Structures are given as structure tokens and as C-alpha cells.
Amino acid sequence: MSVATKDRTARGALTHPDLTRLDDVNRDVLNVLKTPGKGWWAMLLISLAGVGMFLGAWGWQMYRGLGVSGLNSPVGWGVYITTFVFWVGIAHSGTLISAILFLFRAPWRQSIYRAAEAMTVFAVMTAGLFPLIHVGRLWHAYWLIPYPNSRFLWPNFKSPLVWDVFAVTTYFTVSAVFFYLGTIPDVAAARDRATGLRKKLYQVMSLGWQGTDRQWHHFGKAYIFLAALATPLVLSVHSVVSWDFAMSIVPGWHATIFAPYFVAGAIFSGVGMVITLTVPLRKIFGLEAYLTTKHFDAMAKLCLLTSMIVLYAYLSEFFMAWYSGEEIERTAFWNRLFGDYWWATWTMLTCNGLVPVMLWFKRVRHSIPALFVISIFINIGMWFERFVIVVTSLHHEYEPFAWGIYRPSTTEMMIMVGSFAWFGFWFLLFTRLIPPIAIQELKEVMPPPMRKQKEAH
Amino acid sequence: MAHMHVPSEVPVRYLPRSKNASMIAGALFLVGLISFVVRLRQDPDSAWISYVTNWLYFTSIAIGGVLFAFATWMTKAKWNWSMRRVSQSFVAFLPLSFLFLLPMVLMLRENYFPWIEMMATDPIVQKKVAYLNIPFLVTRNLVGVTVLFGMAIYFVYLALRPDMGLTEGSEENDPARASWRERLTQGWMGQEQEEVSSYKRMTTMAPAFVMVYAVVMSIISYDWAMSLEPHWFSTMFGPWFFMGAFWGGIACTALWSLYLRTKHEDFKHHIGLQQRHDIGKLSFAFTVFWTYLFFSQYIVIWYGKLPWEQAWIVKRSDPTSWGPFWLLIIGLCFLVPFAGLLGRKAKMKPKLLAFFTSVIVVGLWLERYGVVAPALWHEGDPVFSVWQPLIGCMFLGAYLFSVRWFLSTFPAMQIWQPMVDPETLEAELVHAE
Fold first, then answer.
1. Between these two residues, A199 and A13, which has the higher pLDDT value?
2. Hey, where are the domains in chain A?
3. H or E segment and range at residue A192
4. A26-30, A133-137, A279-283, B91-95, range with greatest mean pLDDT
5. Choosing among A245, A256, A361, which should be mutated to test the B contact, i.e. which has the most B CBs within 10 A?
6. Which of A101, A174, B304, B345 could form a disulfide with A109 if both were Cys (CB 3.0 to 4.6 A apart)?
7. B430 lies in some domain
8. A425 to chain B, closest Cα gap in Å
9. Which value, to the nearest 10 degrees, does the dihedral of the CA atoms of residues A346, A349, A351, A352 take?
10. A interface mutation test: which of B228, B426, B428, B433 has the most A CBs within 10 A?
């Protein structure tokens, strides 16, 4: 520990031990943008088919009305809201990785943040569809937008649902700008190698980037300011989403811990999704030297931390429900564990609390296949968490005569599954258009090309 | 941002011993003790409220500071290398805190816990009997605190041990330092070996400590604060309490580091611009975070408007009693440090940083009181009296003395630093500043 060999202290040596030359980075990363292989086309076809299913089911619902879903009294929120919250949650780790970890000077973010940010933007795009789907009559969706309408009615600003519209739109705007800003130097690097139509596109996108000192200076300043501005958003957006639930006095929803609990859960699922996406990305495009076990180890630790926070929230909710002494609270949580939807709750507890226990072991954290499998469990578990919160609380509210069972219909499930295809479609396009790994930040941590390697430190 | 440079040879520096400082700490302790005894004869309930709230506060900032040492160790932070020992030094207060806890768990019954009497008549409180009963309360507090403090002390022991091999001859003829070195170097395995062994153990136990911290601090907050209004419950209460403690630990680390700077050139040099900027940023970030947790709890209760739930807030926002007091807390915990630490200068200039972290430390002290006291308050009592700070002097004296003793007995800057850690991603972000 106190004695270091020379090569270990070289800049970047520990993050990317196999990278030695700066031009390798450009070559390898820009290679991703070249004519894609069969695997890529196959995945694109699958996701297009999924998008077709998605649009078909949605069209069917618009044609027949919301009755084709399983939504009814008393469960008026079901798979749509669950999936909406799920995707907003997925969107979270992007800003965490790009903004908060940047401010904390955690260098392992540099290889994954581009993919994470892209994921964020696409996940919000996916999430944004669900309120539109859920309103049923799409042509009335503009009612969500707060403006004094012809009936002189304002939207109810006291409703957390309206806050949500603001929160999610703000989040989308800022994360899209942040994402775009970070890509500029890389798109310029791609521009310098591209030809034809692609070159024209990159010319527009790179905003005339030349890489001068002045431009870098402005870029650096803009980046850190945006990072600082985006940081509160990581907390605020999912807090507002949680208040969609917590503000009401539905048993199981009305809990003070909801805001930080949702934020932690969102980061948990988001980092899980980043692992799910970067493992194939690394494999298909041969980016093993760029996404090393170190990065996966760090992501796994982040998953572990957030999993512990989420588990703390689960346990404190169960404890507090018992401690409250309120019959309704106690029944709600008893029903959650042993009621009609026990399977959903136990899936959630297993996937989010039990499976991540494996991440305590370094061997698991360093095994990429194992991480991939665990990350899928996390995705499933976090979807179920929202399902548990939405459905178990609604189906079993105060009056026994108003209890009921909700079964998601095929249309709903098709739309839910289709949303993954829609998300995947955008992500696939992204890997073809924008360098999925930040070239410029990687280069900053690599040994500078000098005739004589200077002594580090 | 410049690359975090840890010098290869950290100088062995102690906080100079000072008779005056010990006398002041001793005098504070005595004043507090006498005040407590006097108050106990006048109005025992109020005396105990002051005792418990001050215990909660000083234990919070001490264990919060140790948590900060753990957290920065676990995340392999290097920027705070010169302040590690300061955060670790708070561990010296923990044995005293344990002693202070004993009268609380042994002597406080009906005079402090309203649920004991309510248990006879109140059906809701009766349902909580499995948790709200004295034997379990005493057990869980003693066991929890023992485990938590024990882990903290063991961690600091591990951190101190390798230093002891490097201080020989630089103890400035101080017998206490030498004798502690002897005690801590039993079974010495050699410098390299010690560093490796300490590093491994510290890294392994850190996550476990964090979990124990969350659980035990939640229990403390439930038992000594939340359960005083037995119909009220809030899942946020534990996190709000222990994150506040963490924040207090960070602010106190800043204050003690700034104090060290005035004592020697080396401290002045090594607790530099970078360190102050970073700890200022953290103090600021946790100001926002405290407010976030406070607000998230508040708005859910306000919006829900459930009678048993909002009673807690209604009591604390009554304009004729606790309202102004809580406004002051929000001012000191949020408005002043938020506005003050927003800019870069305030974080870097020692005097400004000391001022704003002091505001935080005072604000948090009032907060611990404002959480507990309204629950046991009766119409007509004063909201705040001079007894609160007077009795607090007892804890303040003990805290100042123990931390000062630690920093002058052990090197005030950690000498061994895990310089190159194969696990770390050794890299920097150049354009961050």
C-alpha cells in the first residue's frame, strides 16, 4: 500500500490498464459508429417489432376505450402508473452518475456516464408516454398542461400530479441539455472522420467545435455549472413522484419517508439498468478495455448501498405500521405481506433486499455475468415495488365493501412490455449515432503522449 | 481541480497540551453539573429534558463525526487526509457519552416517558407494549450503544495503530503519548504489515458500521424523542435524526480543523484551500439535505392533515409558543448556512467557514431540543430557558476536554496514509475547476 510500483501510479493506469495510446481511444470508440453487424440489426428488428406491438395495443385501447385495461374501481391506477414510475426511476441514475459523481470527483463514472445519460433521456421519453396512455383519451392529454383554458379553470396547483408534470418536464429538459453538452467534443471528433450525410449531421450537432483553448474553457465551466444545477433535480424529481402517493391518505401510501425512499429506489433501479445495458454494449462492440471490472465493481457497490437504503425503508415502514397502533395501517401492511398480492410483495423483497446481498462478495462484483443476472433481478424487483405500492394499497382501502381485485389485462401487459422495446429502439439508435463512451474524458485520465514518460506525482 | 496530493512524509504534529484549555473545559463541566443538580431540585422534569437533549446533541455530533471518518474511508476519499484524525478524535467522547447515558436509562421513568402512564388507559398505546416497555428500552439502548460505540472505538484503534510505529522519538517528552504508544503497539507486526492489516480491517468493517449506525440511531431517535408523543409516528424521523447527526459531525470536523490551523504552521499548511473548500461544500450540501428531509416530512404531514399526525407539527408551529423557536431553527439550519456557504469565498476563508459552520452547530443544538422539548412542555412554561445552555455546559466541557485530549495525545494528522490503493480508480478530472 505504501509502496507503489511506477506503472500503477501512472494516470489512468488503474482505471484502464489496457489502454496506452490516445489515438486508440478515438479509433475504438468511433469504431462503434461504423456499419453495424448482424447482431445490431437483429436487435433493432426485435425492438421494432416490440414498438409495433406497443403502438398496436395502444391504438386498440384508443379505439375501444380504457375498458380494455383491467383498471376499474377501486384500482384506478395499475400497470400504467407502475410502469411510469418505473421508467422515471430508471432515468435517475443518469444524472446521479453524470452530475453527483462528477461533483464528488468519482473518476469511475467517465466510462459509463454517456450511456447512463442517454439511458436517462430515453427513459424519461418512455415514462412520458404513460400519462398519455393512462388518460385514455389521448386528444385530451393537453389538459395536463397548466394554462387557463376556455372554461376559466386552472389546473389544481395543489395537486401533486401537476407538480409532477413540472418536475418531469424540467428533468427531461435539463438531462437532455446536459447529455447534449457532454457529447459536443466527441461528436466533433466523429465529424472529423465521417463522410457524406453523417458528416453534415455531425457538423450541425457539434456547433462548430474546434477544440480551442477558449472552447474547452467554456465547456468545462458550463459542464460544472450544469452539474451543480442538475444535482438537486436528482432528489427533487422522484420526491415529487413519491408525493403523488404520499400526499394522499391511502394506507400504505401516506408515509413521510417516501421521498428519500423513492429517490434511493430510483437510483438503485437506474444503476441496475446501466449494468443491464453496458454489459451487452461492452460485449457487442468489443469495449472490454474501456468498461473494466473496476467500473462494474463500483456500480455494484452503488447498487448495494441503495439496496440497503431501500431495505431500511421497507423495514421501517413495516415497523412503523405496527408501531402506529392504527388498525388501518397495520392491516394495510399485513395485507401487503400476506394478502391477495403476497406474491408481488415477496418478489419485491427477494429481488431488492435478498438478491443484492450477493453484492457483498467481491467475487460476485467482479463477475460480469453474475452482475448482469443480478441487475435483471433488480429491474424486476423495482418494477414490482411500484406495483406493490400502487395496487396493494388501492385494492384494500378503508371500506371493506369497496375492496376489489385488479388483474392486468393483455393490452396493458403488451403496452408495458412494448415500452421496453420503445426504449431499446432509441438506445440502439444512440449507439450508432453518438460515441457511447466519452472520448474526451477518457483521454484526460490517460498518460499524456510524451517522449519520456514523466515520473507520476 | 488539482490532483489530490498527499505528501509522502506527513509530519508528526500534536495539538499542544494546554492547562488553560483543560481548566476551561473542567470549569464548563462543573458549571453544568452544578446547574443540573440545582435545577434537579427546582424542577426535575425540566432538568432531565435539558440533560437528554444535550446528550442527544453531543452524542450525535460525536458519532456523526466518526461516521464521517468511516464514510470517507469507505469511499477512499483522499482530499480529507489531513482531517481524518480530527473526525476520528470524536471517538474520545463516546465512553463519556456512555456514562452519561447510564443515568438516563436507569433513572428516567414516568418523569420522562409519558407512555408509561398512558399504558393503563390508552388503547392505542397499549398496542405498542411490545416495544414501549422499560426492560426492552433499557436493553436495546445499552446493547445498541455499546455495539455502535465499540465499533467506532475499534475503528479508530485500527487507524491509530500504524501511526504508533512512526511517532517514536517525536513525542516531545510527553509521557502520556509514549505510554499510549506502548499500549497500542502490543503485538506489533512491523510497519508494513500493520498498515496492510489495519487497512483491510477498517475497510471491511466500515459498511457494517454504517448499517449499525442507521439502526441504532433510529432506535435512539424513536426512544428519546419520537415516543414522547406516543400517538405520533413518522418513518422519516430516524433518517432525519441520523443524517442531522452526520451533518453535525461534518460541521464539527470543519470547526476543529480550523482550530488546529491556528496551532501550528504544518496544520495551517495542510488543512489547505482544497480541504476547506471541500468540507465547506459538504457542509453546504448537507444543509440542503437536512432541509430536504425536514421538508419532505413536513409536507406529507401538512398535506395529509391527519389529526394524530399533524398534532406534532401544530404544536411546534404555534405562534405563541414554539413557532418562533422553530423558525429560528430553520433560519440557523437552513437560511443562514445556505445563503452563506453558497459562494466559494465563504467556504475557503477560514473565518467565514468557521462562522457558518458554527451557525450550523448551534442550529442543530436547538433542533435536538426543539424535537424533544415541546412533547413534554406544559402551557405556561417558558419555551427556552438559560438552564438549557447551562446544563449543556456539562456535556460541552466533557466533549471539548475529551477531543482535545485525543488530539494532543495522538498525532493530530494521520501519518500513515494508504497512498496507492489497488482498488481505487486512481485518476483525476482535470476540468473540474
1. A199
2. 16-445
3. none
4. B91-95
5. A256
6. A101
7. no
8. 32
9. 160
10. B426
Q: Coil, strand, or helix at residue A183?
A: helix
Question: Half-sphere exposure of residue A406, counting CA atoms within 13 Å on the CB side?
Answer: 29
Residue A248 DSSP class: S
Is B235–A243 a contact, with Cβ atoms under 8 angstroms apart? no
Which position has the higher pLDDT, B231 or B2?
B231
| Contact at CB, B306 and A249, closer than 8 angstroms | yes
Summarised one tens digit per residue, pLDDT across range B313-372 is: 999 999 998 999 999 999 999 999 999 999 889 999 999 999 999 999 999 999 999 999
- Answer whether residue B425 shows pLDDT above 60: no
The pTM score is 0.91
Residue B334 carries which DSSP code? I
Q: Per the domain annotation, does B255 fall within a domain?
A: yes
Nearest CA in chain B to A329: B233
In this structure, which long-range contacts are made by residues B117-120, counting pairs with CB atoms below 8 Å and at least 24 apart in sequence? B118/B230
- Dump pLDDT digits (tens) for A348-362: 999 999 999 999 998
In one-letter notation, the amino acid at residue A13 is A
pLDDT at A234 over 70: yes
- B173 Cβ contact list (under 8 Å, min separation 6): none
Nearest residue on chain B to A317, alpha-carbon basis: B235
Give the DSSP letter string of B129-172.
TTTS-HHHHHHHHHHHHHHHHHHHHHHHHHHHHHHHTT-TT-ST
> Residue B307 domain-assigned?
yes
pLDDT band at residue A14 using 50, 70 and 90 as cut-offs: low
The answer to the question of residue B78 being in a domain is yes
Q: Quote the number of domains for chain B.
A: 1
Residue A101 vs residue B220, higher pLDDT = B220
| Residue-range definition of the domain harbouring residue B116 | 19-413
The most confident of A12-26, A382-396, B177-191, by mean pLDDT: A382-396
Quick one: pLDDT band at residue B223, thresholds 50, 70, 90? very high
Q: Does B432 touch chain A (CB under 8 A)?
A: yes
Q: Are B341 and B352 in contact (CB under 8 A)?
A: no
Q: What amino acid occupies position B245?
A: A
Domain made up of A16-445: CATH architecture = Up-down Bundle (1.20)
Catalogue the E-assigned strands of B320-412: none
Q: Does B74 touch chain A (CB under 8 A)?
A: no
Residue B307 is placed in which grid cell? 389529526
Residue A12: closest C-alpha in chain B: B427
